[in-house]
Amino acid sequence: MRVCALSMDALSKGRTPMDRRDFLIAGACAAALGGAQALKPRRMVNLLDGPELDPVIPRKFGRWTTDFDTEIVAPKVPGSLEDKLYSEIVSHTFRDTAGKLPSVMLLIAYGRSQSDLLQLHRPESCYPAVGFSISNRKLIDMSLPKGQNLPAVEMTATAGDRVEDIVYWSRLGEFFPQTAGQQRRDRLKAAMQGYVGDGALVRASTLRGADNNTPYFPALQSFFGDLVQGMPNAQRKVLIGTDRAKALA
């Protein structure tokens, strides 16, 4: 802003050969300042009703159940990347009570502020960072109860003999970006609308043997449908957004 101040001062002192350049610089600075003010968030939008997410995730729904002694415990380390990115990480392992489907690992990473500095980390980046290769990646419209669809991603992560099928989606405010580019676009949209939204990355995965060539994507999508249906009516929006939650109600 010092350049702008000097330029405006020069304009006020009379005409010089530099008047036109000073005027252009001052105009550019004013435009930049106006743009920055327009993009400055003026409010926060959080779809989580209450201080914590974990209590609203059911332990039993549909054909699925989880036992407290089998839950995954992943405490945040103060100052770690997870601690900076997310307000809460919920992680449980569910088993099929009929014994026909493999166990499903559910992980929900929730952040109250999805700004430029704090944003969801997508599995396409996290898994390769620890040695997994990605295949079968596809953008999907996942079916939910009552004819609702949700933008999601399915993919397979492989490292040695470990084959993990994954279905996940990300919510940023009321947006559901399926790619990193869409996520950046939607953050900008939210900023232009004057708010910073909370965010959630909801991931379910299951393991299969390396000799099994059939991914478990349909089972994982069915799991998510049961999960959403089993949640308290007023709390579904934290995972699937306000409009879909109202439709399911």
From TrEMBL:
Residues 24-231 form the Methanolan biosynthesis EpsI domain. It comes from the Bacteria. NCBIfam families: EpsI_fam, EpsI_type_V. This is EpsI family protein. It comes from Novosphingobium umbonatum. The gene is epsI.
